[in-house]
Amino acid sequence: MNWIILFIAGLFEVVFAFCLGKAKETNGNEMFLWYMGFFVAVSLSMGLLIKATQALPIGTAYAVWTGIGAVGSVLVGIIVFKEPVTLLRILFLTTLIGSIVGLKAVSAH
Prior knowledge:
By secondary structure, this protein is mostly helical. It contains 4 helices and no strands. The chain has helices spanning 2-25, 28-53, 58-79, 87-106. It is flat, with a radius of gyration of 15 Å. It starts with a helix and ends with a helix. 23% of the residues are buried.
């Protein structure tokens, strides 16, 4: 269950990165709403990370959490914000995913 909580925490990290990207594209009240979404998502992400680390090793949990956020944010950047897709970006994204899976596989919990 703690791995599921950690995964959801990582997804909320992607949400707060998405909100930052959308806030950058807007102004006025819409920008304020995206920043509010950012604060809600960051609070949920941190709260779930705290919950997960009560049972999982902190080093592994933190690395997996940031990895999920990084992979998700890159994918959102490519899909939503039309960031470039290059061979090197895909290569490093693939190695990052492999590292996350590896950390989960060798974790004591």
